[in-house]
Structures are given as structure tokens and as C-alpha cells.
Amino acid sequence: MSLGAHLVELRRRLMICAAALIVAMIIAFFVTDPIIQFITAPVDRIAQEHPEVVVGLTFSSVTAPFDLRMRMAFSIGIFLAAPIWLWQIWAYIMPGMTRKEIKYTIGFVAAAIPLFFAGCYVGSLVVPHVIELMANFTPEGANNLYEGKLYFDFILKLMLVLGVSFVLPVFLVALNVAGIISGRDIIKGWRVAVLIATVFAALATPAADVVSMLLLAGILVVLFFAAAALSMIFDRRRKKQMKADGLLPETDA
């Protein structure tokens, strides 16, 4: 294809993505009420447990409630339209890939998507504990009034961070497949990985909830070791193939 044909194809794919996102946003806009009730449940619990403190969401402008719903519709719309825009990206780059690259890419995407949503789900379970924990630091006589926009941004970012953290092992395997890092190099960093997973879990869960902290840290550690084990399998297969092609001597360890 010529450069002009590539640009035309790119524009067509982008138009499809935009149309899918708009439709998903319209659908998402009408389901914001139950989502708002879900994300504000921690605020309601804080208000019930501390009736002497004023707790609730605030909106600093006339259009702020509508703006919040639009931001939520956009965020939810991206998730709802994910199958379509992911496929459009894939369909655009696939013709320029080899059969082997296509096979690996399908494997990475098939692993990354469920892991990302699993991380977001774990984030939805962790967020209420974090909000309640932070509320305990409120000085006596002060109130907890959360700006709606900032409150939603905090929840969304925390869920995204957990979603991305679950996908990081897939990137380690991708680096291994690309020949940038070996499985042994990954496994050598297990102490640092365990420390980071433990600290991250401790920060993401309330101090009193040790079970949740250990569960989250355990999931992250298991994903890390799974990535290391898979990378070592790929290293072994790659070495066997190189020996079969005569690139390595048979006695080479």
C-alpha cells in the first residue's frame, strides 16, 4: 500500500473507533446512577459510622454534576468499546506482521486483557478500604467533603494502577520474547519484586486488613514468578532452535 492508502485506511479505522466510543458513551451515560451509588458507598458508610462529621460529595460549579457524569460516561465508554477499538488497532497493524509475530501478539493480548480487568476488579474491592482508611486521618472537628471530580479521578486512577500492575508480567514476557531480557535475569530480581509487591499491597490496603494485603501481594508475586517461568521456557526453546539451526554447538550449555 502507498502512504496515501495507509492514511486513508488509518482514517477509516479511527472513524470506526470514534463511532464505537460515542455509542458506548451514550449507553454508559444512562448507567451512571448505579455506578455513582457504588463508588459513593464508602462515603455513606463513613457518614453512618461518624454522624458527628459532615461527610459527602460536593460540586463547586453549576455544571459540575453534569461534567462528572460525562467523565464517567467517557471512562466507562472506553471499557465498553474496548473490543472494537482493540480490533481496529489489531486489524491495521496485522498486515505488516509476520505469522510468528501475529501468534505472539495474539497470545499477549489474550493474556493482558483479562489480567487488566482482573486488576481493575481487585481495585474496585480495594478502593472502599482506602477511602475509609484515609478518612480516619481527618482531624477532630473537621469534615470530609469530597469534590466530585477529584473523588472520581482518584478511584479511576487507583483502579487503572492496579489494572496495569496485573499486566506488567505480560510485558516482562514480551521483553523476553524480544530478546531484551532472559528468564534468569527476571528470576534474579525476585527479592526486589516481592518487596515491591508487598509495599504496594500495604499502601493499597488498610493497615488493619492484613488478609487483603497478603492476598493482593500474593497475586502479584505469583504473576511475577509465572512470567519468569514462562520466560525460562521460551529461553530453552529458543536455545534448542538455535542448536538445531547450527547457531550454537550441541555441547553449549
Automatic annotation (TrEMBL):
Membrane topology classification: Multi-pass membrane protein
Record-annotated membrane-spanning stretches: 12-31, 72-93, 105-131, 151-178, 190-208, 214-234
InterPro entries named among the record's database cross-references: TatC (IPR002033)
UniProt GO MF annotations: proton motive force dependent protein transmembrane transporter activity
Keyword S-adenosyl-L-methionine: no
Keyword Repressor set for record: no
Swiss-Prot/TrEMBL keywords: Cell membrane, Membrane, Protein transport, Translocation, Transmembrane, Transmembrane helix, Transport
Subcellular location: Cell membrane; Membrane
GO cellular component entries: TAT protein transport complex
Gene Ontology biological-process annotations: intracellular protein transmembrane transport; protein transport by the Tat complex
Record's function text: Part of the twin-arginine translocation (Tat) system that transports large folded proteins containing a characteristic twin-arginine motif in their signal peptide across membranes. Together with TatB, TatC is part of a receptor directly interacting with Tat signal peptides.
Similarity comment: Belongs to the TatC family.
Subunit organization: The Tat system comprises two distinct complexes: a TatABC complex, containing multiple copies of TatA, TatB and TatC subunits, and a separate TatA complex, containing only TatA subunits. Substrates initially bind to the TatABC complex, which probably triggers association of the separate TatA complex to form the active translocon.
Annotated protein name in UniProt: Sec-independent protein translocase protein TatC
Gene: tatC
